[in-house]
Each structure stands twice: as C-alpha cells, then as structure tokens.
Write a structure and sequence with these properties.
single chain; 14 helices; two-stranded parallel ribbon
C-alpha cells in the first residue's frame, strides 16, 4: 500500500532535512519520493515501482525529469552526508585517542603518538543491462559475478570506514574510451578516477588514512597519489609483478612473484588467521620486505589456504606497511571486503541495478540517491547496534526497522482518517488517486 509522506519516521525525516538546501521546493518532493520508495518498496526499483510506494502528488514524467534534467548537483548531496559523518565521528575519534593515551605504557622519553586509522576502499562494480541498447554510457565490461564480458554500466565508487562506521562516497560512471568518443565526453580511466578520489577526499580531522585496492588499481600512479597525502596503501598484486631479491652473493636479482613463490620451502610459510564475520579461517602466509618494480618499497605477502594447495591458486598482496607483521597486514587487507558487501547491498537491498532511465546523468543521480540512503541505513544500523550490543546488525536489519515504523505510522494515520469521519471507500479512492 502506498504511504503518505506524513508516515515518515522521525529519524528519516530529520536525516532528509540535511539536504533541504540542495533542492528547490518542487524537487524536494521527488527527492523524498525516491528515498522513501527505495526504502519501503519490495519490488523492482524502477521509476514506476518507486511511485507505488508513495502516495503524494508526484508523476512519472516529473520523476523522470527530476533525475535527468532538473538542476541539482549530486556533489552537493555527497558533501552534506559526508559533513554529517564528520560531525558524528568527531567525538568517537577523540575518545579513541584518549583511550590509546591511557593504555600506552609509562616510560622515559617522548610518548608514542596515538593514531586512529580510517580506510578508504576503492573499487568498481558492473551493472548488467542486456536490453539497454539506447542507454547513455553503455559499454562492454567484465563482470566478476558472471565471469564474462557483459553489456552494462560500470559503477566506480569508494567506501570510507572508521571505527565501525561506513560512509559511501560519491558514485561515478566509468566509460570506456570508445564510449566517450561516441558520446563526446572526456575519457577518464579507472586509475584516473582512483587518483582523483584520493586527491579530493577529505578524511575526518585527527585521523590517518589507509587506502585499500584490488590488483587492478595497485599501480604506480595510485601509490604515488596516496604517498603525496601521507597515506598508506595496501592491496592485491598480480603474480607477474617483478620483485627484487638478493642472491647468496649479495647481488640484486629480479624475479616474478610467481617464480619467487615457487622457490619457497614448507618452512617458509607460517599460519595466520584471515578475519571473517564467522570467526575467521586459517591461511598460510609468507611475508618479505622487498622492492616491487614501479611501486617501490613493499611488504609482499603470499597467502594460500593449505600447503597442499597448488601455487597457481596462491594470492599475492602488497602494502606500504613495510615494518608491520603479517597478521597486522592481513587484518588490514580483510577490511577491503566491506566494499564487496556494499555492492551486494546496493544491488540486492536497494536495487541499484533496477534503473530504466536513459541518460548517463540520470543513472549517476540514481546511484547518488542510493548512496545517500545507504549512509542513512548505516546511521540507523549504528544506532541499533548501540541498543543491542553483541548482535551483528546489517543495513537490511536497519531497513526492516524503519519499514516497521513506517507501517505503524501508516496504521495510526488510517485510524486518524476514520476518526475524522472518512469512509473506507473514500479512503481507498484517495489512496488510488
């Protein structure tokens, strides 16, 4: 049943007010319509589907123009929810610095500086659109889910993690060079997008940033962009990367990572734990400080699930934490999995691939509204977590909690309508209008 906007929960209503200045009065209704539809509607999140969740004076054509033509800026929305994140995290960051100062041992000399680390995770995800032949920005991309090249759009985005909180950043559309030439827009590679994100991102004050990437983005330009900000970087490495070792005679020699792994003996591997929500699982790891060609000083980690596993299935990682132990780097690398969960929630929970809009502008705006709602769900998840310590809560749990409140508000509203003298037939006619 469609819900009047008056049924909005108090926490959602307060959150939406953060963005009041980003929209005109007419645009505001459509902004609220889209977020309420994404939150409450259980079907496919097409424009028609979103309208089925909301009872208000909005139209399908108006919603289409809101996404494709009306003058509002996704960047302004992203700045608003990131400013809210900074404000919310100020006290926890200071509390963590205080905790570290209290816990450090008393000894002569200058005390060790405290550090609160946030993780900036960069990645992309393909939204398959096999029938969207006339959609803007459409290209041929490799889908890791389908294990093949598919027709669709490539969403590039980042996720910032700090002290158990998650903040999605502004999504962008990656277009291949041929698509850019066809549509007459400047080309930006995925590495260009990653470098731009690192250069423009502003972390909360009094924090240190650690960038996490997969092997596609682990290159010289991304590494140097992070280094210019004074940040660390960790991520996957391809097995054909070249690393420098010293021979028995002390001479430097260059080997591919795969060849170096093949030279290792069983005694060169140690057990470690790869963190996971279910408690983690055992892996075997070999760590070596070396110089990786085009990257520079790197702590290289090679992991495998067992010593009997073929080396072809080994995974390779690199980190600028050259003085860290293997378990510390593994704990850091495991944090990158949060962005895979983000993409899964975007698609399965919020329908980020359900859109049927035609222009690239509308697609990016739709993704931005999905990200805007995702940040709200993380705020709500954190609030529920404080009320129910010890439980593992997800964005889905937060969404169901808000849906339940909207349902209660709807029943109260219907009760008020009947008490005012309206009949069931009149109320049904109003909701169907």
């Amino acid at each position: 049943m469609p819900k009047p906007m008056i049924c909005l929960s108090d926490v959602l209503r307060k959150y939406l007010e953060l963005f009041r200045s980003c929209f005109s009065r007419r645009q505001w209704k459509y902004f609220v319509t889209v977020l309420l539809g994404l939150l409450d509607y259980e079907g496919r999140h097409t424009l028609k589907g979103l309208l089925q969740a909301v009872w208000d004076q909005v139209s399908l054509s108006g919603l289409s123009r809101f996404l494709s033509r009306w003058p509002w800026q996704p960047e302004a929305l992203a700045r608003s929810w990131q400013a809210d994140f900074h404000a919310e995290m100020s006290a926890p960051v200071q509390a963590e610095h205080t905790r570290q100062r209290a816990a450090r041992p008393k000894r002569p000399g200058r005390p060790q500086a405290t550090s609160v680390t946030g993780y900036l995770v960069l990645d992309d995800s393909v939204h398959e659109k096999p029938k969207g032949r006339k959609m803007g920005g459409l290209g041929r991309h490799y889908s890791s889910t389908e294990k093949k090249v598919v027709t669709g759009h490539c969403l590039f985005t980042s996720l910032y993690l700090l002290l158990g909180r998650r903040c999605p950043l502004l999504p962008r559309l990656y277009r291949q060079k041929a698509v850019c030439e066809r549509e007459g827009v400047p080309f930006q590679s995925k590495v260009d997008l990653a470098v731009a994100e690192i250069e423009s991102f502003q972390p909360p004050p009094n924090t240190h940033t650690h960038v996490l990437v997969d092997s596609w983005y682990h290159c010289r330009r991304v590494r140097r962009a992070a280094a210019r900000r004074g940040w660390d970087l960790s991520g996957g490495l391809k097995s054909n990367r070249w690393m420098r070792i010293n021979t028995a005679a002390g001479d430097p020699e260059w080997l591919q990572l795969s060849a170096y792994a093949a030279s290792l003996e069983a005694a060169d591997w140690v057990e470690a734990t790869w963190p996971a929500q279910e408690g983690g699982h055992k892996v075997y790891v070999h760590a070596v400080r070396t110089w990786v060609r085009k990257l520079g000083p790197t702590l290289v980690l090679i992991t495998r699930y067992s010593l009997d596993q073929p080396l072809a299935q080994a995974r390779y990682w690199g980190s600028t934490l050259v003085d860290a132990d293997a378990q510390t780097v593994i704990d850091t690398l495991a944090t990158r999995w949060d962005i895979e969960t983000l993409f899964e929630d975007y698609k399965d929970l919020l329908g980020s691939d359900h859109y049927q809009v035609m222009s690239a502008t509308a697609i990016v705006r739709f993704w931005t509204l999905v990200s805007c709602l995702a940040y709200f769900l993380d705020k709500q998840r954190a609030s529920l977590q404080a009320e129910r310590p010890g439980e593992h809560l997800t964005w889905g749990d937060a969404r169901r909690d808000i849906q339940s409140e909207h349902q209660r508000n709807l029943l109260v509203w219907i009760e008020d309508q009947f008490r005012s003298g309206i009949t069931a037939g009149q109320l049904a006619a109003r909701l169907a209008a």
